[in-house]
Amino acid sequence: MKDIFFRKQVLRRPGPLRRHYDVVIVGGGSHGLATAYYLAKNHGITDVCILEKSYIGSGAAGRNTTIIRANYRTPEGAAFYKQSVELYEHLSQDLDFNLMFSQHGHFTLAHSDRSLVVQNERAEVNKLLGIDSRVIDRYEVKKLCPQINIGEDVTWPIQGALYHPPGGIIRHDAVVWGYAKQVGRAGIDIHQGVEVTGFDIRDGRVHGVKTSQGDISCGTVLSATAGWSSPVAKMANLPLPIVTSILQAFVTEPVKPFLDKIIVSAQMHIYVSQTDRGEFLIGAEVEPYPTYSNKGTFPFIEYATRHVLELFPQLHATKILRHWTGLCDMSPDYSPIMGVTEIDGFLVDCGWGTYGFKAAPITGVTLAELIATGKTPALIEPFKLERFYTDTMVSELAAAAVSH
Ligand code: PYC
Question: Which residues form the Rhodanese domain (predicted)?
Answer without folding.
Answer: 23-67
